[in-house]
Amino acid sequence: MSGLAVLLAVLGGLAGSVQVAVMGRFGGRIGVLEALAFSTAIQLVISIAVMLAARGGIGGLRQLGSTPVWMWIGGLMGFTVVTSITFAQPRIGATAVIGILIAGQLVMGAVIDRFGLFGVEQIGISPARAVGIGLLGIGAALSLVR
């Protein structure tokens, strides 16, 4: 299963880069909010179809009301990511958006791990990890230079 997880993570990274380029162009053509709404609608339709096919029904959605509301923040975070990339890509380019996005994800990931936020296992920030985060931040900043 860990091999599948790595494969899906790589696929997600590749798809995310394509999404930055496409959504920036799409937002420029029809408007940022319009592109966001359409993209979200497509994602909803595909997600429901896959869920129905894989689960033969609504699956775990029956437990939605018994989950803590803070767990619903994933939808807000997805909205934030797609809105940000759709707006930023035409203004600063795909490379800069992706570099800054990844740097932000790495910093937030380190904070989440360090403090065990959202119920994840606590993992300290080693000197090597801190250097890696710093170097990625420098790389993200340099990606703004044209």
Describe this structure in words.
- By secondary structure, the protein is mainly α.
- It has helices at 2-30, 32-55, 73-92, 94-115, 127-142.
- The protein is built from 5 helices and no strands.
- The N and C termini lie far apart (41 Å).
- The mean pLDDT is 91.
- The protein folds into 2 domains: 1-92, no CATH class; 93-146, no CATH class.
- Helix 3 packs antiparallel against helix 4.
- The longest helix is centred in the N-terminal third of the chain and has 29 residues, at 2-30.
Shape: globular
What is the total domain count? 2
* Cα separation of the termini: 41 Å
Low-confidence stretches: none
Radius of gyration, taken over Cα atoms and rounded to an integer in Å: 18 Å
The helical percent reads over 70%
The number of distinct helices, counting runs of at least 4 residues, comes to 5
Number of strands: 0
SS content category: mainly alpha
* Biggest sheet layout: none
Rounded mean pLDDT is 91
Q: Tell me the fraction of residues in β-strands, as a range.
A: under 5%
Order of helices and strands: HHHHH
Topology:
Elements: H1 2-30, H2 32-55, H3 73-92, H4 94-115, H5 127-142
Structure summarized in a few sentences:
This protein is mostly helical and 146 residues long. It contains 5 helices and no strands. It has 2 domains: 92 residues, no CATH class; 54 residues, no CATH class.
Which tags fit this structure?
146 residues; mainly alpha; 2 domains; 5 helices; globular
